[in-house]
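Final report, Chapter 2: Outcomes

The project's central promise was a pipeline that accepts a single protein chain and returns its three-dimensional structure in a standardized token representation, suitable for archiving and comparison. That pipeline is now operational. To close this chapter, we reproduce one record exactly as it appears in the project archive, with the input sequence first and the structure output second.
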Amino acid sequence: MAGIKSLVLPVIGVGVIATAVLAIPSTREMIFGGGGFEGELPPPQMRRLTEAQYRNTISDVFSEDVTVVGRFEPEVRMDGLGAIGASQASISASGYEQYYGIAGSIADQVVSDGNWDTFMPCSPAVSDEFDLQCATQIVAHFGEMLFRRQLSEEDVQLWTDAMNASMDQMDTFEEAAGLVIEGMLSSPQFLFIIDRVEEDERGNVQLTNHSMAARLSYFLWNSAPDDELFRAARAGELHTREGLAAQVERMIASPRLSQGTRAFYDDFLDLSRFATLDKDRLIYPAFNQAVAEDAHEQLMMFLDYHLIDNESPYPSIFTAKETFLTRSLGMIYAVPVVPSEGWELVRFPEDDIRGGILSHAGFTALHSHPGRSSATLRGIAVRQSLLCQTVAPAPAAVNFTVVQEVDNPEFRTARARLTQHRTDAACASCHKFIDPIGLSMENFDGAGMYRLREHGELIDTSGEVDGIEYEDLPALENILANHEAATSCVVERLQHYATGRSNTQIDSYWNVDLMRRFERSDYNFRELMATIASSEEFFAVALPQAQDQEDLQQASLNAQERNS
């Protein structure tokens, strides 16, 4: 669909976004007029769609049969989450070309002869002539769904004029419509989830209903709002407590919630690393790409089964005995799996070391080296990902020779090889903090397979964490299940994931309230999601300072110049 840049993109730059967002003065009033919070509210955001959000949105707006092929801009992790990085991420020139190519491929599929009647709200009276009425319907229909806002009359006019102009270069109305779809999918208004604000009847700043709908849908479902959420937004229902509560309750009860929870698990535990997970095939012949994919999916199913399906208390993920296995994972776990394809729910005996998340192959294999286990990587993963604690980077001059010599006859186990770091003054403080946790997982090799000995030496999995001594991994998991940092960590991470920002003043107060509610609900994760989605703090917004406004407007102009 050549020519779209010169015909369409000049009218869709993010300059119009800056104008819409920056025209209203700041306020400290909350969305429902409570006004009880003392402190600065966070500014509106522009969060770049993640690859998963992009794919989910295309599937929901059009169809899961529409294929999305192409490379995406690398995602950025900040403060432990990709969701925070998305609010800081931009799009490079080469990245934009990739998005443009993907958009063209999608548009071609949508307007093809076999799909037109399925996706389009109307058909032209004559294929080789411009039909203004049908063009207006197409622009208004897809504009709201893709831009996550209602288009003004001026917006519709700009896009229909662009479609009409493109008829000079295209053979049919259908091809011209394809250019408009391509242009919308290439627009910053689609590629970024944009907070738009307005004044309420009291003169206070608030997110528009459509921006509230986008926050809800990408938090709870990791995708665009559905028809019912758009209807509620058009009706202004999200600015009422009752209307918001009704939508949150509906969305939390929907099967689509799993799509949102899985996106959080992936971000929370940094499971994107599965995409590059590789093991030495000579050392671990049972571990292959299929096992890696199944191990990733197993973690998703395990967490959803306990936290969403059964609504078990969040700490149960450290001790739960039920999980899911495939035939390929059965080889890793040394457990017979009956179905030749698909998944089987299994329960490990109470005296089995297997059970909680720390014993899952997806955790132990992910936090290991290609050819050996790693107590240090596993300890860091627990401290940073599950307890939200900071681990300092290793000093530059550390000598890892002994640790890496797995065949060293003098140091036959990982515990023996790591002794050097725990006694070295430069390394001791950090390794005493992380190694005991990781050493308790040494019964699992680099592929996650159980072993009792290493090089003939019995593996010692005892240790001490935060002043509490224990004998083995199940005992450690019980300690973590009762560790205050474990529950406070998931609250903080989910809060930051939902908002796409690190701690602000409002978030610190809000976090205390969320923790109280989480505890009162017996650590019900589903209820925690609903609480966040229903909170005034989730939607609270102010406006950028003058310098930030100038920077955004200049960035808008730069984007327009590149696009045209």
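Archive annotation: Residues 1-19+46-193 form one domain.
This record, like all others produced under the grant, will remain available to the consortium after the project formally closes.
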